[in-house]
Specification:
Number of strands of chain A: 11
Shape of chain A: globular
Order of helices and strands of chain B: EEEEEEEEEEEE
Distance between the termini of chain B: 41 Å
Shape of chain B: globular
Structural class of chain B: mainly beta
Number of helices of chain A: 0
Radius of gyration of chain B: 14 Å
Order of helices and strands of chain A: EEEEEEEEEEE
Oligomer: heterodimer
Distance between the termini of chain A: 36 Å
Largest sheet of chain A: 7 strands, mixed
Strand content of chain B: over 45%
Number of strands of chain B: 12
Amino acid sequence: DTEVTQTPKHLVMGMTNKKSLKCEQHMGHRAMYWYKQKAKKPPELMFVYSYEKLSINESVPSRFSPECPNSSLLNLHLHALQPEDSALYLCASSQETGSRVDEQFFGPGTRLTVL
Amino acid sequence: AQSVAQPEDQVNVAEGNPLTVKCTYSVSGNPYLFWYVQYPNRGLQFLLKYITGDNLVKGSYGFEAEFNKSQTSFHLKKPSALVSDSALYFCAVRDFPIKAAGNKLTFGGGTRVLVKP
């Protein structure tokens, strides 16, 4: 299985809602990533989890809260978002042995609209 | 800091003609370079990477890239473009040195490729 899955595919939420994005991979990868991508722009890194521990937080606002329950799952909890947070949220994973340069495998993304 | 630049926002090419998408890089240390492709409303798909060794890297779907250290470039190429190659292409550079606790991938601005029949 060489796939990263993300749910839901689309999400519309109000600024007072609480929602979660989910990401799953069964490739045995030990690093997982959240990216935010605006239309026609490159992905921007938000968080990196390495061996289920948060290793990189790119100064993301606290209204985004990541969680890594186990080595296969990655969640992004959303609360009190702003309309400018509307974007495609991409999850990725990589082998991350620490001594190799491995490519990242990306999921299809969740298209988030904040009203 | 690592960075990559893609000087062309869009490349237009006729089907069957050679396709080149340009990328230049700026790194402190060894360059670990990647190409990804993104089709509309989809995630990114890995095409190829350069770590070390042969300057010509072969990848998926008939794509290849040429690493040129003196010109700090990593251009993506395909000898004969297909209409289905129309997509958004991203060059990216990886952290150096490799860190055990997570590594960043920094993307270029992207180049839209339009292959016309």
